[in-house]
Structure formats: C-alpha cells, structure tokens
Amino acid sequence: MTSQGDSVPPYAVSEQLVVKGEELYKRRCGGCHSLDNNRIGPRHRDVYGRKAGTVADYKYSKALRNLDVIWTDQTLDEWLVNPTAFAKGTSMGFRLKKADERHAIIEYLKFLSSASSANAQ
Ligand code: HEC
Q1: Cβ–Cβ < 8 Å for 10, 115
Q2: Hey, how many other C-beta atoms are within 10 angstroms of the C-beta on 93?
Q3: pLDDT of the chain, 121 residues: tens digit per residue
Q4: Is 111 helix (H, G, I), strand (E, B) or coil?
Q5: Among 19, 68, 69, 86, which residue carries the largest CB count within 10 Å?
C-alpha cells in the first residue's frame, strides 16, 4: 500500500443520515450530477476523500483543476455553502443553504466512498 492509502482511515458513517442524504442528493444535486456518469457536473462516486478536479474524462473549469483540496466533511461543507467563494471562477452555480441538508448529503457521499467503513472488508 502507498503511504497515501495508509493515511486514509476507514470513514465511519451514520446509516440514518445516509438514507436521508440519498434522498436529498437526488433532489438537490440530481439535476446536474449522478454517481456514475458525468452530466452537467462530474460523476460523484468516490468523490469523498479524492482530490478536487480529478475525474479524468470531465471537463472542469480552470478554478476546479487548480484547486488543491481533498474533499472531506469540512471542504465539502464549505464548497456547498458557496462554491464561488471556495473556488473563484467555478462553473458550479448552486448553493445549499441548509446545514442539516449539507451534512446528510456529505454523509451519503462518504458512504459511497470506497474508503468508507461501511464498504470496507
Ligand atoms: C446547477 C448544476 C449543479 C447542481 C445543482 C450541483 N452541482 Fe455540483 N457541480 C456542478 C458543476 C458544473 C461542477 C463542475 C465545477 C467546475 O468545474 O468548476 C460541479 C462540481 C461539483 C463537485 C466537485 C467534484 C470534483 O470532482 O472535484 C462537487 C463535490 C459537487 N459538485 C457537489 C455537489 C453536490 C453535493 C450537489 C448537491 C447538493 C451539487 N454539486 C449540485 C454543477 C452542479
């Protein structure tokens, strides 16, 4: 294993929040994103724990390509509050104002990450 892999702990997730997050994800993000296909926005499976702007076959804005950030609870939360403030020049023009909705959706994305303890062997 690489040292990078070693530094990623299995993420603990709350099942209840994941269920709520899945519903909210479809409603709030599904217009532009899906888990396994690039649409208006890049596909999302495994986005949690990954470096921003790295889905190889998606055409990101320069802002996202140059963003040196790993998607975690904190960075995803800040991003969803206001993408433009987080990465000036991004093409994601959508804000999620409600903290509880952000929290549930982030938990869902975490659950879908291969580093999630729910998916780990
Ligand atoms: C109106 C369309 C739209 C909606 C709605 C939207 N997004 Fe996006 N999203 C985009 C676009 C476009 C990008 C690419 C941004 C860029 O390249 O600057 C993006 C990028 C992202 C990224 C960066 C992914 C990466 O590979 O680095 C994350 C994370 C993200 N969106 C999460 C969400 C979540 C979570 C929601 C729902 C709460 C959401 N988005 C709703 C259009 C949208």
Answers
A1: yes
A2: 8
A3: 444 444 556 788 888 999 999 999 999 999 999 999 999 999 999 999 999 999 999 999 999 999 999 999 999 999 999 999 999 999 999 999 999 999 999 999 999 997 677 665 5
A4: helix
A5: 86
Could you tell me the pTM of the whole model?
A: 0.91
Ligand 1 center–CA 29 separation, angstroms: 8
**Ligand 1 geometric centre to CA of 30 (Å):** 10
CA 1–ligand 1 middle distance (angstroms): 30
Ligand 1 atom closest to residue 29's alpha carbon, by position in its atom list: 37
Domain extent listing, the chain: 13-112
Which atom of ligand 1 sits closest to the CA of residue 51? 27
Tell me the C-alpha distance between 44 and 35, whole Å: 4
For domain 13-112, give the CATH number.
1.10.760.10
